[in-house]
Each structure stands twice: as C-alpha cells, then as structure tokens.
Amino acid sequence: MSDRKTLQIQRMSAHPGPIPGTGVQRDVQVCKLVDTTTCIGCKACEVACVEWNDMPFGATTFDNTYQTMPETRWNFWNLIKFNEHPREDGTVQWLMRKDQCMHCADPGCLAACPADGAIVQYTNGIVDFNQENCIGCEYCVSGCPFNIPKLNPGTKKVYKCTLCSDRVGEGLEPACIKACPTGCLKFGTKDDMKFIAEERAKQLRDNFGMEKAGVYDPESIGGTHVIYVLHDATDPERYGGLPKNPTIPWSYTVWKWLFKPVLGAFALFGGLGVLLHYVTVGPRRPQPEPPNKEGTNGNGD
Amino acid sequence: MELSRRTFLKGTLVGGVGFSALGFDLTPVYAQTQGLKISRATETRSTCPYCSVSCGVIIYTLGDKAKNAIPQVVHVEGDPDHPINRGTLCPKGSSLEQDILNDRRLLKPQVRRPGATDWEDISWDQANAEIAQRVKKTRDDTFLEKDSQGRTVNRCEGIAWTGGCTDTNEFNYLVVKSMRSLGVCYLENQARV
C-alpha cells in the first residue's frame, strides 16, 4: 500500500489537534445529481444500494403509497419518496425524490458527534461513518437536518449512506448512480453537476413551463454533495419534507464552540491546580489527633 | 522549593495521565475506506434473464478461476460496454444476485404430470427423452398436409415455440431451422442477443 490514501480525511468528529495528512494532496469535490423531473420511481437505486452494500433484507411497509417504507433505515440507505402534491387546477402532481445522505459540506452529524473519528469527511466531500469508533450515542441522528443516520439496535452503531466511498475511492461511480435506467442520477465533480443541474433547470423554465424550477443545493449548510433539480425549488418541503433552509441545531454549535472549550479549560486548570498543590505542598498526611478535652465524649453532647 | 526526583516523576505521571484524559492523543490517526469487494473478482458477462430488453450484466465471482477455488457470486451489476443498457439496470435486474443465490432456484428439471399436484424431480436424460417422445407423438398426431380447402400446407398445429430473452442469435437460428423442419408455425423468439 502506498502512502497515498485513496480518500484523504478533511474533517474528523471530536478530534483534538490537526488531522494527519491534510493539505498534502489535491482532490476533486464529488457530487451526485438527482433530477427529480426525470425520476420514474423504479427503485433500481434502492435495490442496487442494498445489493452493493450487502445489507440484510427486512420487511417493507405498505402505507397506501408506492414508497418502500416511511423513512430510511440503518440497513436501507436510499429511499425513493413518493409524494402526491395537489395542483391548483385540482389535478395531482406525483413527485419522486431519492432520499439519502446529502453529504453536507458542513455536516451536522459530524459537528454533533462526540466520538473521535467516528464520523469523517474526506477531501472529496464524502461524509463517512467509521462504525468501529461509533459509541452509539445517536447525537448524529438529532444533529442531522435530513433525518438520515439510523441506529442499528443490534450492534448499537449508527449507519448511513457512504456515497459508496469504497467504490469512489477506487475510481468507480456509486452503485445507485450506475443502476439508474433513466439517467436522472448523475455523478461527477461538484462543478460539473452544478452546471448540468442549472442547465436542466433553465431548460425546464424555458421549455416546459416550470417557472419555479431550480436547483437544491442549500447554502445554509455550505452546500451539499447531493443536489436536486426540482420542479419547484421554492417549496422543497413538498418532496417528502426536504427542508428549505436546513440547519444544524444551535445547541450543538453552543456545545462544541462554547461549552466544550470552556469546560475543557476549567478541567485543565483544575488538574494543574491539583498538581501544583501536590508538588508544592505535598500529599495530605494523617493529621495528629486533637487533644481529648474533658467533659466531651463520642456522642457529641 | 525542594523537588525530589520521586516527586518530579509523580508529577510527570499525573500530568501525562491528565493530558491524555483531556483528549491529547499522540497516536497517529488512520481511517480507511472499506476495500472494494470486487477489485480482484472474476468478471463474467451475461444477459439479464427477465424482460425482452436483454440488458448486459457483469457477474462478479469470488476467486480467480484457480483449480481449487470454487467460484461464488458476490455481486451483479450492469455492463457499461453493453450497447443496450450501458451499465444501467432496472430494480429487477439490480437484484440478480438474489436470483442466483436463492434457495428456491431450480437447478434440475422438474415435471408435473397430468393430474398430479406436485412437481417431481427428473434427470436431464429422462427430461430430454420424454420431451422427444412427446414432440414426436404430437407432431404425428397434429401434422396437417392439406387444409380444409385442399391446399397443401404441411404444417404442425399442435406445437408452439416461445424463446427466452437470453437466447442468442445462433441458438434462435437453430430453433427456427428445427421447428420449421417439424412444420411448426407458431414460432416466437427474440433474436437480439
């Protein structure tokens, strides 16, 4: 194995100090493009994901929709969400959206994670979980604006889409992208995907009468490495609860950037104080017994 | 302040433990992605058996075909060089691995005899022999030399042939030749592969 890692870590959860090996190799930002206007809801990406990742099968849920299950599971990382949106003229618009980890540039899961190295972000933008470091606290679950990471109750570890980091690291495209028969899924650099997405949105606006068509790449979390072309970018909520302005809960920011350093400093100075006291004053010796005064006894009256 | 060697060592120890407890980890950190499970697997090109689109697939099997290695299918995905699907697959095609690694997959011929309720395992030889006998009997019984208006037709109306989507052109050529020689008219195949 050479020194060159297939994927170099850029950020690491709860890691003190610098990340080893940063800044020594260039990498392109990778990105998935999901064109919801050409998705036919065939679910080939769902099956390809389960097959490639060798995940155990589970029973699906029927809830009066074609959707395989209500939300992603620890062993089901890629779910097509089927949504019926009533139009103004009384007809129904059927919207399908591939729901999976968005691989945020500023990941809420990574910010929330207290375990060193359990969540990493590679320089190409992929956010990956290392289950051997995971402590199963589920902070990432509440830190995620998209409700993606899920706990495996059997192993007490959290799992989610890896953007096929094993495939991408070896130069392949993710399994879901490869399978997509309509070509509504694309994979490439972030710049290329943004360009194609904007072109497609312009085409939808100019030629298909979708005045509000646009690209979903939310700035509130620094952009994502999974971007959508939406029929109506002004209302992403209708696509199965895609947040318009996803944010990391403020409590995690306060915890990470205020409480943790301050409390760490307190602990450090406390420890130094104890050490200083020990070195200068010395250990606590047994005190000599106070002289026993007359008229007092052990009952303390 | 007198600082004895013993006190200094104690202090160093306490300080070191304190720093480690506060998260100063001096060991190098490595995180590797999972290895590619098909990196050295044997690739076999095949055709998806489901619909008539006939998508090309690559079947990845464990092992390098060495004498003592028994191959095992570990993954199936679309063939990027195939002109029909260019690497893509539908959900049924994407699940082909489970089609292969399936307890209920038929590995030998079975027959359900007239009136029987259950399927019965038979050998390939027996299956071929029985099919040949039935083809001969059916053809002899239903062969028609002249139709109701006296025109020479020389056809066999009791047999039909349907081809599957993984049949190759060459196989279909042989099918057409042999079926035509029997006089079969109801002939359907799918010469695309």
- The secondary structure category of chain A is alpha+beta
Number of domains of chain A: 2
Structural class of chain B: alpha+beta
Number of E-type strands of chain A: 11
Shape of chain A: elongated
Largest sheet of chain B: 3 strands, antiparallel
What spatial form of chain B do the alpha-carbon principal axes imply? elongated
Percentage of residues assigned to helices of chain A = 25-40%
| Percent in strands of chain B | 15-25%
**Strands side by side in the biggest sheet of chain A:** 9-2-11-10
Low-confidence stretches of chain B: none
Q: According to CATH, what is the topology of the largest domain in chain A?
A: Alpha-Beta Plaits
Q: What would the average pLDDT of chain B be, to the nearest integer?
A: 87
CATH class of the largest domain in chain A: Alpha Beta
What distinguishing features does this structure have?
heterodimer, A: 301 residues, alpha+beta, Alpha-Beta Plaits, 2 domains, elongated, B: alpha+beta, three-stranded antiparallel β-sheet, three-stranded mixed β-sheet
What would a concise description of this structure say?
With 301 residues, chain A is an alpha+beta fold. Chain A contains seven helices and eleven strands.
Give the SSE map:
The complex is a heterodimer of chains A (301) and B (193).
Chain A: E1 9-12, E2 30-35, H1 44-52, E3 79-86, E4 92-99, H2 108-112, E5 119-122, E6 127-129, H3 139-143, E7 150-152, E8 157-159, H4 165-169, H5 175-179, E9 185-189, H6 190-207, E10 214-216, E11 226-230, H7 250-280
Parallel strand pairs in A: 2-11
Antiparallel strand pairs in A: 1-5, 2-9, 3-4, 5-6, 7-8, 10-11
Chain B: H1 5-21, E1 42-47, E2 56-62, E3 72-78, H2 91-94, H3 96-100, E4 110-111, E5 120-121, H4 124-142, E6 143-146, E7 152-162, H5 169-182, E8 184-188
Parallel strand pairs in B: 7-8
Antiparallel strand pairs in B: 1-2, 2-3, 4-5, 6-7
